[in-house]
Design a protein that fits this description.
Blueprint (H helix, E strand, L loop, with lengths): L14 H17 L3 H16 L9 H8 L3 H8 L2 H8 L3 H7 L7 H15 L16 H19 L7 H21 L3 H5 L2 H16 L21
Length: 230
C-alpha cells in the first residue's frame, strides 16, 4: 500500500523554518552576483584611487569601500593587492578599444572615446599614466606598460617616417584633452557639446596619424638679373 505525502508535510513546521525559507529565497539573487560586474566595479575603484593616491597608500579596504564590496571579496577575485593593481596598471584592454577604428578615422574615434569614457563611464582609458610619478617603482611599470601597449602599438599601425614620434604626439594630444576635460575641468570645455569638441580636436590627432604628403616643388621662378644677384 503506497503512502501519500500530505502537502503540509513539506511546509515549514515552525515560524523559524518559515523565516529561514523566506531568507533563502530572498538571498538567492545575491548569491548569484554577476562576478564580471563585481570585478569591473573593483577595478574601477582601484583605478580611481590610483589616480589620486600613491600606490603604497592605497589599502584594500579603501578599494572595497569605494566599490561597495568587502575586502575578502577582493581577495577572492584577485588574490592580493599586487595582483589587483597589476591589472589596473595594464593598458592592454583599454588600448584595444581606443585603437578600434580604421586608420583614416582613428583620430576622431580616439578623441570621442576619451570624452565618452570620462562622461559616461567615469574613467579614462589612458589618463592614469599622468600619475606615474606618484607611484615610485610601480610608476616605472605603469610607464613601461603605456609605452608598449599604447604608443608602440599605435606606431605599429602608422605608415611613413617617424611613426614612433607621430604616435607619441597623437597620444599626447589625447592626454592634454583628457587632463583639461577631466582634471582641470575647464569651464568652456566642459560646457561645450561633445561633438563640437571632437570636430575641433580630432583633426589635430589625425594629422599625426595620416599626415598629408609634402607638396611637390613647383617650377623655378624667374631668376634675378645679374645686377641684382649678390
Amino acid at each position: 500500500m503506497s503512502t501519500v505525502t500530505s502537502p503540509r508535510a513539506t511546509a515549514p513546521t515552525s515560524r523559524t523554518d518559515a523565516m529561514r525559507a523566506h531568507r533563502d529565497a530572498t538571498d538567492a539573487p545575491a548569491s548569484r552576483r554577476d562576478a564580471g560586474a563585481t570585478k569591473a566595479a573593483i577595478l574601477r575603484a582601484a583605478r580611481h584611487l590610483l589616480a589620486r593616491q600613491a600606490h603604497a597608500d592605497i589599502t584594500l579596504k579603501a578599494v572595497a569601500d569605494r566599490a561597495g564590496v568587502s575586502p575578502p571579496l577582493i581577495l577572492k577575485y584577485f588574490g592580493n593587492k599586487d595582483t589587483l593593481f597589476s591589472q589596473v596598471m595594464s593598458f592592454e584592454t583599454d588600448a584595444v578599444t581606443l585603437l578600434d577604428a580604421p586608420l583614416a578615422e582613428l583620430g576622431r574615434h580616439m578623441v570621442r572615446h576619451v570624452l565618452v569614457s570620462q562622461t559616461e563611464q567615469g574613467a579614462d582609458p589612458v589618463l592614469r599614466i599622468v600619475f606615474a610619478p606618484l607611484h615610485g617603482e610601480q610608476g616605472d611599470i605603469l610607464r613601461a606598460n603605456f609605452r608598449t601597449q599604447v604608443t608602440e602599438r599605435l606606431a605599429g599601425r602608422l605608415d611613413g617616417p617617424d611613426a614612433g614620434l607621430r604616435a607619441e604626439l597623437a597620444v599626447g594630444a589625447l592626454l592634454g584633452l583628457g587632463v583639461m576635460f577631466g582634471i582641470a575641468r575647464g569651464s568652456h570645455l566642459c560646457a561645450a557639446e561633445l561633438g563640437d569638441i571632437v570636430d575641433r580636436w580630432a583633426p589635430a590627432v589625425q594629422a599625426q596619424l595620416t599626415p598629408r604628403p609634402e607638396p611637390a616643388p613647383g617650377p623655378p621662378g624667374p631668376s634675378l638679373p645679374p645686377a641684382l644677384q649678390t
